[in-house]
Amino acid sequence: MIVDTSPPPKKQKGSESSDLVDIFTSARKCLDTHYDNTEKVIRHSRDITRLSKKAIFALHRFPVQLPQDYNLDAINKELSHISSLILTVFSEYLQGPFLFRYYRHICPAIQEFIEAAAFKSFLVDKNLLSNNDLVATYFADSPVFIDDYSYILGLSDLAGEVNRYAIKAATENNLSEVQRALDFLKALENGFFHISDFPQPEKLAVKLHTLRESILKTEHALFTLSITHL
C-alpha cells in the first residue's frame, strides 16, 4: 500500500481571504440581529411598564369598598391589552434558545404588570393573586413564562400601593378597609420571610425594608383612625 505523504494543496490567498470575509460578515449579521432584537424588546418593555403604571393609577381611582355592580370593563380591557403586548414580545423574540437571552430585558415590565394585576385582585377579589392564577387569567395557553423571581419582586412592590389605598380608606373614615389592608401587608411580609435561596437576596432585602415601612405607615393610620372611633 502506497501512502501519499505529499502535503495538501495550499489554498490560494484569494480563497482564504474570502473565507475570512464570510466569517466576519456572518458574525456581523448575527450581532446586528441581536442588538436590533434587544432594542425592540427594551422598547416594548418601556411601553408595558408605562401602561402598567397607568393601570395602577386607574385602580387608585376606584372607590373604597367596591360595590358589587361596579363596572370593571375599562380596567379589564387595559390589563388585557398589556398582557397581549407581553405575549407579542414572547412570541416574536423569546422563543426557544432566545428565551433567556432577552428575558432579563422584559423582567422589569413583567414585574410592573404583576403589581398592577395583583393590586386589582386585592381591590376586587380581596385576595392575593398567585402566580398560577396570574398565568391562567392573562396568559392561558400561551408561550409566556413568568418565573418565580419576577413574580416575587413584582408582588413586593404591591406593598406601596396597598399602603396608599389604606391611607385613602383612612381619609374616608373606613376603619375596616384600613384593617384589611394592614392584615394583607402582614400576611405578605410573613410569606416573604419563608423564602429561601433567592437569586438576589440583597434586592429582596430592599423590598422587604420598603414593605416594613408600608406596614408601619398603615399601622399608624389605623391607630389614628381607631382613636377617632372611641
From TrEMBL:
Its main location: cytoplasm. GO terms for molecular function: sequence-specific DNA binding. It is found in: Cytoplasm; Nucleus. Keywords: Cytoplasm, Nucleus. It holds the Pfam family Translin. GO terms for cellular component: cytoplasm; nucleus. The keyword Metal-binding does not apply. It comes from the Eukaryota. Belongs to the translin family. This is Translin.
